[in-house]
Amino acid sequence: MQSKKENISIIEDLDEFQNQDLRILKSLAQDKKLAKEFLDGTYQIDFFKGKSFKFATWFLQHLKIHDSLPTQRILIENYPEQEELFKEIYIRLHLIEFDPLEFGYDLEKLKNRYAKEQFLKMEEWIVALGKILGEENSAKNAVREWNKSLTEINAPRVKKKAFFEIQFEPLITVGRDSFLN
Questions:
Q1: What does the pLDDT look like over 160-181, one tens digit per residue?
Q2: Cα separations (Å) of 176 from 159, 179, 181?
Q3: With contact defined as beta carbons under 8 Å apart, do 115 and 51 qualify?
Q4: Residues 6+ apart with CB under 8 A from 174
Q5: What pTM, to 2 d.p., does this model score?
Q6: At what angle do helices 103-133 and 19-30 cross, to 10 degrees?
Q7: Torsion-angle region of residue 50: left (phi > 0), alpha (psi -120 to 50) or beta?
Q8: Is residue 67 within 8 Å of 33, Cβ to Cβ?
Q9: Are 36 and 66 contacting, i.e. CB atoms less than 8 angstroms apart?
Q10: Helix and strand numbers, DSSP H then E, in the chain
């Protein structure tokens, strides 16, 4: 049993883990249907980060082989070299709040984070390819264009407003609720 002091330390250390990852892992650990859907779907283990990634790898591997959700004890007995990781993750899963109705929302956030990371890695790939091909200047230009495009994609869209005047005296205008709209 954990003391209050240890629990506080663990809660303060949650930043090392991604809360998004933990919410998804908790849902997978509690709901076999969601876990199977994740395993059989277009989702990737690479969505997770750090220790959550390692845990998800072992957890989903067990599910795939045995077609059952593994408990902490089952994982430790089958993979004793990972005992500390499993204990740590299960403590964190116990502490994290999760609402099953938010699974889709949380998964979407996880996918978006993964996609953003992949886009950012593209810059490194372009530079490396430029070096290999001896086209470093072209690669730098391509990176500038790539970053410019990403900035434009992520830029907030401003809705432009217009005022339509049909007649000055008397003032007649067209707006949202008019028959001329």
A1: 777 777 777 887 777 776 665 4
A2: 14, 9, 6
A3: no
A4: 164, 166, 180, 181
A5: 0.62
A6: 120
A7: left
A8: no
A9: no
A10: 8, 2
